[in-house]
Amino acid sequence: MKIVISDYKSSLNFDINYAISYLRDTLGTNTEIIVYEYNGNNKEFIDILNDADALITGYLEIDKEIIQSLNHLKIISIMATGFNFIDIQQASRSHIGVAVNQEYCTQEVSEHVMSLLLALNRKLKHYTNDVDAKGIFDYGTTNNLIRLDGSTLGIFGLGKIGRSVAKKAQSFGIKVIAYDPFISEEVANECNVELLPIDDVLSESDNISINMLLTNENVGFFNMEKFKKMSKRPYIINVSRGALINEDDLVDALDKELIKGAGLDVLVSESPNLDNHPLVNRDNVIITPHSAFYSETSILECQRIACDNVINYVNGNYDKMFRLINPEILK
């Protein structure tokens, strides 16, 4: 049995020994495990995977060309909840299972949303820059702060994380509205959230939290057309996937003051060049390095679940997997 754990350098910035030990304890000490830091060389990457049974990754793009080159691979296990980087159709055609982590960081991500929401609305970046960089100790250097109690938060994507965000926001006295065509009124009512059409959520929200899964259909969902409908000039918070926002339009919306600012845990690129990036060095934009999921607990859970998906798949225990994206390959 050969298992490859591979990702970008920044995404492998944690102790992988837990996963290695977990796999060998379960599958046997003779299990070959290779940790490979992806450097952009697809030929080298394919050579590493050539005789592998399983690939564990978080954010690598596994496209049609790569998948077609892997005749031995049985499963791709993703150390994340999203799977937009994988060509699922080609994986299915090649009879390769694709599994994701269904649940491991809901609390961390929803806490991150609230951290960004609070920091933006209280303009903490502006004030800390004043104090640290300018030696200014004066609350009057900015304005337009609102009281969150009684404000409205619009959530796009009322899944587990969206509902966790709603619960936390409501504890601050914030009214929560949402758009999610896949959630029933019954589920929304249970968490005291009003489901509304897209345009109503855009126009009524003081803050917007993006918690949608990225699909081929919603790439660039938040574009200039939608920014222009945000009549209350909200803060935009994205902890989902960067490609849900058209970044050029976001920069334009910030420059034209169509929105107050943004809290971004993700950008379109997972390895962005931050030199002269148009979203960097803005008082009203907070960027974190896709860290919303991160805690000591979630890192261990992320590894464990990804490993369990591999273990259960190769042992034929499909019903014990957390989520197999393409179960049709089992038929």
UniProtKB/TrEMBL annotation:
Residues 114-292 form the D-isomer specific 2-hydroxyacid dehydrogenase NAD-binding domain. GO terms for molecular function: NAD binding; oxidoreductase activity, acting on the CH-OH group of donors, NAD or NADP as acceptor; transcription corepressor activity. Residues 18-317 form the D-isomer specific 2-hydroxyacid dehydrogenase catalytic domain. InterPro entries: CtBP (IPR043322), D-iso_2-hydroxyacid_DH_PdxB (IPR050418), D-isomer_2_OHA_DH_cat_dom (IPR006139), D-isomer_DH_CS1 (IPR029752), D-isomer_DH_NAD-bd (IPR006140), NAD(P)-bd_dom_sf (IPR036291). Pfam families: 2-Hacid_dh, 2-Hacid_dh_C. It comes from the Bacteria. PROSITE patterns: D_2_HYDROXYACID_DH_1 (PS00065). Keywords: NAD, Oxidoreductase. Belongs to the D-isomer specific 2-hydroxyacid dehydrogenase family. This is D-3-phosphoglycerate dehydrogenase. The lineage of its organism: Bacteria, Pseudomonadati, Pseudomonadota, Gammaproteobacteria, Vibrionales.
